[in-house]
Design goal:
- The chain is globular, with a radius of gyration of 19 Å.
- By secondary structure, it is an alpha/beta fold.
- The protein contains 8 helices and 11 strands.
- The chain has a 4-stranded parallel sheet with strand order 8-11-9-10. The protein has a 3-stranded antiparallel sheet with strand order 3-6-5, with no helix packed on it. A two-stranded antiparallel sheet has the order 1-2.
- Helix 6 crosses helix 7.
Length: 261
């Protein structure tokens, strides 16, 4: 039986389907400017958190390009479901921020005291550049080559402005940042550079999971398989992000969405 997925990994049942309507021809069907719109359902959070930061669902695109999903039950209120890589392709997570003001204030105060590694995804990019990345450096395992970086998907102006606003808000709220770390991909490094006057540190642990061939080459693992690369990255990313920063300050780590799933 094919394994079915919900947000957060293998679970009994089926995958949550797309939460948007309309024809969808690719993983970026929702446009080059942004990712899927926020959803408004009030489904319970499946991953308990200290703060109700967001409700997230994994979206999907049907293989036939439609948004016609089966339902988890016979009534119209059932969840949209599909079997990934059988009748649909998994795409990005959709998240709906649910933080209340009191939580925001408490979270700000905690970050102002320091002691946290703040891990985030890079901001919005030019999805039109996805093909150049997939057909070039991801395939040839040379995304970290300085001569190749222009073929990567880059931050678009809206993304750069959002990253700048993110970093500026930290400064205005007095949230201290000591070191920044990022994936070697340009879109992550540019985002991280905005948080500190110190040089950003590019780390293999934060490299895009799509670059798994390059990870294996760099760490000299000769058993070429995506599972070996993912295991190495998952273990080392968790270990790296779990090391507390210096007292009274925070570190910022900018990586990719799939690395955080």
């Amino acid at each position: 039986m094919a394994e079915k997925y919900r947000m957060g990994g293998p679970l009994p049942g089926a995958a949550l389907g797309a939460i948007c309507s309309g024809d969808n021809a690719s993983s970026n069907w929702y446009g080059a400017v942004a990712y899927p719109p926020y959803f408004t359902r009030n489904a319970p959070e499946k991953c308990p958190q200290k703060y109700g930061l967001a409700r997230c669902e994994l979206s999907a695109v049907m293989k036939d390009g439609s948004s016609t999903f089966a339902r988890s039950d016979d009534n119209a209120g059932g969840e949209e479901v599909c079997t990934p890589n059988v009748d649909c392709f998994p795409t990005k997570h959709n998240c709906n921020d649910t933080l209340v003001c009191s939580d925001l204030v408490n979270l700000k105060d905690e970050l102002a005291n320091g002691g946290y590694n703040i891990v985030c995804r890079h901001e919005k990019t030019y999805w039109q550049q996805q093909t150049g990345e997939v057909k070039n450096c991801l395939l040839n395992a040379n995304c970290m080559d300085p001569q190749i970086k222009d073929t990567q998907r880059q931050l678009q102006p809206m993304g750069w402005n959002d990253a700048d606003a993110f970093a500026t808000a930290f400064q205005e709220m007095g949230i201290p940042v000591d070191k920044t770390f990022s994936s070697p991909f340009t879109r992550c490094a540019q985002h991280a550079d905005l948080f500190s006057d110190e040089s950003n540190n590019k780390r293999l642990e934060l490299l895009y999971l799509g670059s798994w061939r390059e990870v294996l080459a760099v760490i000299n693992i000769t058993a070429i398989s995506v599972e070996n690369a993912f295991k190495w990255q998952a273990y080392n990313l968790r270990n790296f992000a779990g090391k507390k920063p210096m007292a009274g300050t925070n570190n910022v780590m900018v990586t990719h969405g799939f690395n955080m799933m």
